[in-house]
Design a protein that fits this description.
Length: about 650
């Protein structure tokens, strides 16, 4: 049987077959130490690295600074390795490498998988010039608690949207030869209280229906690797979770790629209290299914086993597929690549117009415009919490200036553009926070600007939704700009002056206060929906989010009409009922009204971006098939016949709805 398969492989994919032969030969010749070296990832500043290079024991290295440094390390490894096995270089290429795109949460606001694919493809091209062949991205963790700072790195609260974006990033990265890594497997975003690295208490149904689907989407898109998470899932740390890493990932999903631990997560199993020593931790993580140990060197203590060959085989396959055996060194480019046009395009699509009373926006350039707020001049913050090798970004001030607008002081002005929010250190990893409000000094400054009695446009820069309840009441126009990357200031100016009609929609619900977290639209029903006193609500704030998931305005208006269900298709007419051309992101939601278990009050099952001229209309169709109706319960994916409710809507609130029987 094996021989027939090998012959078939030789016929269909001769290169692949030849690689397999070389891999088996290497495995038969390598010592245990050499094999364990392949399963160990180093950082350039680790003292152990020098000795490991001299012995040719370095499998992979993360966070090199430059192609020259990578080439130096590579040459040392090749000289030390009897088998000349090259190093695989890895880096967190999250939303750009030199050209920095909007943070992933912002890209998710575009509801545009093609935008994510562009981010991946451009980042891959740039990173490869620095010898990087593996990125620790996309982060596909569902995040429903804005206190968790890493919400910035993912695609928000919804598994369907996050899955579409995950697949697109994977395609983008890998189409240009950068191995992608879906992280952090799994439920990292469910950390209790939004405290980073904390425990995740999730039922199996919630894992299957909410946290696992974006990983599944990445696997189906052919992602080459996955990273195990820091947190515990129930009472088992994710990095030693055989059920998830073996039973679900390998057996059920058929995943063939690499599993890498997060940074030091293997030896941290000691702190988790499931191993007495790093060596015992290494055995537990490895037996559970982790192939590569990031940074802590614990895998160098593993005893010989058949599973070691299996893991090394995967590492060598990735190196052969990357062409590293043939070309281990990378020629330093004369001119490095950048792609600012793409960055501006994606940034424009990532901006969400939350509020625009009286059509204050867009602004005419002939008005006297004041620019205020602590973030107005900041280009470093525009790059977001993690900016790889990106060094330049346009600030909002730069954007206005490049658009030919010189600003005046607030006291002379017709209109004030105020830029408030978070600095780059306030979101991202290890940036959990108990307050989502503007800091007190910013709040005071905003209030005094509003007191001047002139119209204020608030631009919110942040890596998470901020609880801006006061502004929502007192400021006429609010633009959620997130951290938009290298071209942020230009993209904001494009929207402020109407050169671009905003089209982004929120990939997360905006809370009224941090105390309301977690707040997300696809929540479970309750026997006491919010209403009178003894119902599911807080006494001291209105019910629901400040702005719902999927919300986002345009400079034009769209009318939804004529919802129809015909066979397996739900459709509606969308008409541009305003005076400007614009894009609308039409959303499709489903609820299983009566099932054997409670199901969320609604779930996103489709979306489409349509571009319409004034008065133009289009019929938008969504399939209603098994995929849209199924859910996981009691060990299986099921569709339970009966009553369903469907919506075609401009956000997770409102829209057209009807009942359907299936
Ligand atoms: C993060 C990962 C990241 C790794 C390497 C860890 O602290 O959790 O997301 O890929 O560091 O930089």
């Amino acid at each position: 049987m094996h021989r027939i398969l090998a012959a078939l492989l030789l016929l269909l994919a001769p290169q692949l077959a030849a690689d397999e032969v070389r891999i088996e030969k290497l495995l038969s010749e390598m010592t245990l130490q050499e094999k364990l070296g392949q399963l160990t990832m180093y950082a350039p500043d680790q003292p152990e690295l020098k000795d490991a290079l001299a012995k040719g024991l370095v499998g992979s290295v993360l966070n090199t600074a430059h192609v020259r440094q990578a080439n130096e390390l590579q040459s040392a490894q090749l000289a030390g390795s009897k088998h000349r096995i090259p190093i695989l270089f890895a880096y967190d290429v999250l939303h750009g490498y030199r050209t920095i795109f909007p943070i992933p949460l912002a890209v998710a606001s575009s509801f545009d998988p093609e935008a994510a694919e562009t981010v991946g493809a451009v980042s891959a091209r740039e990173a490869r010039e620095d010898a990087i062949r593996w990125t620790f991205a996309p982060m596909v963790d569902i995040a429903r608690d804005a206190r968790w700072g890493r919400m910035a790195e993912g695609s928000g609260e919804d598994p369907y949207l996050a899955g579409r974006m995950a697949a697109a990033y994977v395609r983008g990265f890998q189409s240009n030869g950068l191995l992608a890594c879906a992280k952090h497997f799994v439920a990292y975003g469910a950390a209790e209280g939004g405290r980073d690295y904390g425990h995740a208490e999730v039922t199996e149904a919630t894992l299957r229906n909410v946290y696992l689907p974006p990983f599944r989407a990445a696997v189906d898109a052919g992602v080459g690797s996955l990273m195990s998470a820091f947190n515990t899932v129930g009472d088992v740390p994710a990095t030693a979770n055989r059920k998830l890493l073996q039973d679900v990932l390998r057996s059920e999903w058929g995943f063939q790629g690499l599993v890498v631990s997060d940074w030091a997560a293997v030896s941290e199993l000691v702190q988790h209290g499931i191993a007495a020593t790093p060596a015992e931790a290494a055995r537990k993580a490895f037996d559970a299914g982790v192939d590569i140990d990031m940074w802590d060197g614990a895998f160098m203590t593993l005893p010989a086993s058949a599973r070691i060959d299996e893991a090394v085989r995967r590492v060598l396959r990735a190196k052969f597929a990357a062409g590293l055996f043939e070309e281990p060194l990378v020629r330093e480019p004369v001119v490095v690549s950048t792609s600012y046009r793409d960055a501006r395009h994606v940034a424009r699509r990532s901006i969400v117009l939350l509020k625009n009373d009286g059509g204050l926006l867009p602004l005419s350039k002939s008005r006297k415009i004041a620019l205020a707020g602590p973030l107005a001049e900041s280009s470093r913050d525009m790059l977001g919490p993690w900016h790889a090798k990106g060094s330049r970004a346009t600030s909002v001030r730069d954007g206005l200036h490049l658009a030919g607008v010189e600003t005046v002081r607030p006291i002379d002005a017709d209109v004030i553009v105020a830029v408030f929010g978070e600095t780059h250190e306030q979101s991202g990893e290890a940036a959990s926070r108990t307050s989502l409000a503007l800091p007190p000094d910013q709040q005071r400054q905003l209030e005094s600007l509003v007191e001047l009695g002139k119209p204020v446009v608030l631009i919110v820069m942040s890596g998470r939704p901020l609880a801006i309840s006061w502004a929502a009441e007192h400021v006429p126009s609010i633009v959620q700009a997130w951290f938009l990357g290298s071209e942020g200031g230009n993209a904001i100016a494009d929207v402020l002056f109407g050169d671009v009609n905003p089209s982004g929609k929120l990939p997360v619900s905006v809370p009224r206060t941090a105390a309301q977290a977690p707040v997300y639209y696809a929540h479970f029903p309750t026997g006491r929906p919010a209403g009178h006193r003894f119902t599911n609500r807080y006494q001291d704030i209105p019910v629901g989010p400040l702005y719902p998931f999927g919300h986002g305005l345009s400079y034009t208006t769209f009318e939804y009409s004529d919802l129809r269900v015909e066979g397996d298709v739900v459709s509606a007419t969308i008409r541009n009922s305003g005076t400007r051309a614009g894009d609308e992101i039409v959303q499709f939601y489903v609820r299983d009204v009566v099932a054997s278990v409670s199901r969320p009050v609604k779930e996103l099952k489709g979306f489409q971006r349509v571009s319409l001229r004034p008065d133009q209309s289009v019929r938008v169709e969504f399939p209603l098939t098994r995929r849209e109706l199924e859910f996981w319960t009691n060990g299986a994916w099921v569709v339970e016949p009966g009553e369903f409710q469907v919506w075609i809507a401009p956000s997770s609130e409102g829209g057209l709805t009807t009942k359907v029987y299936r």
